[in-house]
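Researcher: Going back to the complex we discussed earlier. I've cleaned up the inputs and rechecked each line, so this should be the final set. Can you rerun the prediction on the complete assembly and write out the structure?
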Amino acid sequence: MRFLALLLIILLFSGSSLGECRNKDCMTTQFKFETMGHTFHYDKVFNIGTNWYIIFDYPVNNTNKTISFEFSTGISKEHVYDNDLVTDSISFSGSTFSEENLNLVLNVIITDEDNSTNGFNLNIDINKPPADDLFYLWGGMTVFWTAIGAYVLYISIKFNKLRDKL
Amino acid sequence: MKFEREVFGLLGFLLVLGALYFALIETGPAKFFTAPNAQKLFYLHVPSGLITYLAFLMVVGGSIIFLYNGSEYADRLAKSSTELGIVFGLMSLASGTFWMKAEWGGDIVSRFLTDMRLATTLAMWLLYIAYFVYRRQPETLQVKKNAAILGLSGMLMVPLSYLSSRYLRSHHPVIVGTEDQGSLDPSLRFGLYLGLFGFLFIFIFLFKFRMEIEKMERDIFKVKMEKI
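Model: Rerun complete. Updated structure for the full complex:
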């Protein structure tokens, strides 16, 4: 009973998701694109299940129109420049990938106002972290056996007491 | 048969072990789920839920017969089924809570208050807890009649809980009787049936055991009354 109560308390108060960091300080890798003057901050590891961000600093005299990010698997996103900002970012959902992939190419293409383009490639590792739902699986499974076991024990004790009385 | 009850128990246990083998080893982590491991609770969560409905419907049936002709057997059946319904209901609700926490996340209390399948199932379970508590007193005819009337509430609560995920606001998936039923993977269906029949046989084992205890209690009570 105490064990079940403890499990219930853990369930009630445990958080459901970890906080995600969208600051430059949290990014492990920095890349400066000398040709255009941009600086990109990103995490080289894309963890499946967690949103992945790439933060970019605009050059001082920005004349760009769009910036697109395209993985070699075909998944892409295009970002329209906001000239009022110095730093901007784009994110890919944690469910973008479902399988591990090392050195996946992310093609970054910057389009200028006159539609001329410049680009470069980044290599990203897609990582599949171990599932953290095993606690819930074994917690749930424990309930079945505990409930049946406790009930069998309860009626067995009751049965033996009554048999002695008869 | 001498060991009929034990055979049901053993068979049920083996079938549940088979369901676990299918769930945990044969099929591997589920695809298209946020919590691929916790999804394995499906193979026992659904059967325990269905057995809960069966138990509470038996309470309804026993209560109707008792109110109609005063059958002692029907009253014993209703009382025994209530206990089993509470046990299987606890299994269904608790395993569902673990699975829900892993798959949907968020706050459990607010889920139980806002999801109609969860709310109605919990209400149904609490109602039969009330029935169980009410019966823990000397069993006069009036107590039995009142309990039978309380037991009849399952006529409303069981269909309400079962149909709530179809017609009321609920995140709870609906499979039986929908287009999704045909799309169930055969291995998933096989594992589900193993779990369902496993729990059904365990239910029969426990029910027979509980009915025998109930009969013994009443026999002892009769002997005591005769002595007085």
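Model: Worth noting: The domain at 4-28+37-227 of chain B is CATH 1.20.120 (Four Helix Bundle (Hemerythrin (Met), subunit A)).
Researcher: Good, that matches what I expected from the previous run.
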